[in-house]
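Journal club side-thread
Mid-discussion, someone asked how the predicted structure for our own chain would compare to the paper's figures. Pasting it here so we can look after the session.
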Amino acid sequence: MSKVIVLPGDGVGPAVVAEAVKVLGGVTERYGLQCSIEYAMIGGAAVEEGGRPLPDATLQACRSADVVLLGAVGGPRWDALPADLRPERGLLALRKALDLYANLRPVQPFPEILDISPLRREVVQGTDLLIVRELTGGLYFGDRHRDGDEATDTLPYTRAEVVRVARVALLAARARRGRLASVDKANVLETSRLWREVVTAEARGFPDVQVEHLLVDTCAMRLVRAPRSFDVILTENMFGDILSDEAAAIAGSMGLLPSASLGDRPPFLYEPIHGSAPDIAGTGAADPIGAIQSVAMMLRYSFARPDAAAAVERAVRQAIRRGARTPDLGGTATTEEMGDAVRSAFEGATFTARGQA
């Protein structure tokens, strides 16, 4: 019996996670997977309930779990809190505590909705890339200091931290199309010079992977001019945060993209890349596809069921093909209606004994 901890979080988090859990329920029924689902608090909701963005009970529940599914954290209502009580600190602390150092963010636009992208159809069509973001080092975890009108944030990385995430990216590239773009700012930052040095050394063990080094500004430009030129993109924490949000424009909406945060051992964490979107929270307009696709990644990486993962991904494509669209995709479907459309497509599919349609 696998234990799944669900952290709905803030804003649209509870709404999109609810639809993802419904789809997961359909998968467990169809494939005979045994899992229990428990809920815990994180982020602003946890601050309001108990004064801390990551309660001890939540952390212990996650540590005892096999899988963690998260919605979103944060929002302007908590902006005035001290830095250590901000909702985002809860998520950062959870990633660090579970040592989830490799964040995988796939970007593959749906052919049926290419025109919602701000980029031209011929630019985005055929894009299939994976961003591997280092998740537990860099600026977000460095020492910080504020003294009146002066503030300091430090950007630390060790060789070991770069080695382990580089290996994840190189293995991913080897399993895909054999190309890796390592992103840094080596013309300015000492940490980036270390980054480039380590990636170059690790790449020698992967002669079947073609590696190029890109400055982050060059990568940002190429993402919108020629996204099809990328296979796997490897980058440090803050650059990965920014570049993956930019890459959402390729797909057309941040609401579409999932992510998996992996480490050397379970539990792993799965979440859509979008934030809490407080402006649409409670309106029923949030897109649950990113959360549902995160369940597909969960099935692939935590349950070792690529067949079930592929079935969920096919159901998402089928629902979109049939015209189910939330407002971010130019439609009128509610969050719940979009989730129901995916669940319906999944339940209506024909499966073989191993779940292949």
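Post-session note: Residues 46 and 221 are 39 Å apart (CA to CA).
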